[in-house]
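Hey,
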Amino acid sequence: MKKKLLAILGSPHENGSTAAMLDHAVRIAASEGWEITVIPLYEKRIAFCKGCRTCIKTGQCVLKDDLGEIAEHIKTCDRIILAAPTYWANVPAAVKNLFDRLLGTAMEETATFPRPRLSGEQEYLLLTACNTPFPFSLLCGQSSGALRAMNEFFKTSGMKRLGAVTFPNAKGGAELPLRITKKIGRLLK
């Protein structure tokens, strides 16, 4: 049985830097025989979280939109690659909204610390592109802020981190530097 990969594009630009990073990762996974589902997040209909917290008890959101499909892919995949650009030292609103809506899919509340609902056998890779040049992208917390937000969701859900790749000084360019493609390749092997 083929291993399942879920690739989520958390950018509105399907031809930008972040998309190029995800496309490169998907090509590597395809060459290794993964069954791949790509979700362009900005094409999905995902309402804002109402904060009702019903999902904590049931594991499912009460709102009926495209989130149910995404949640099923997340529950059943072996690996997730999330590619999201850096916006104001964080993730774009669509990605943050996805995390908010996946609360009950990712965790269960306890009296102390949340209990993960996803498997420690599942892996995740984080990709981000940032317009700020290196080393300022790191020193000023731009790309590291976006990675922190993404990592928090997956870590709390119980998944295992493969790593993260940052493309600083990207400025919307779809041409990936060799150092970025090599790093993505190393993390996926």
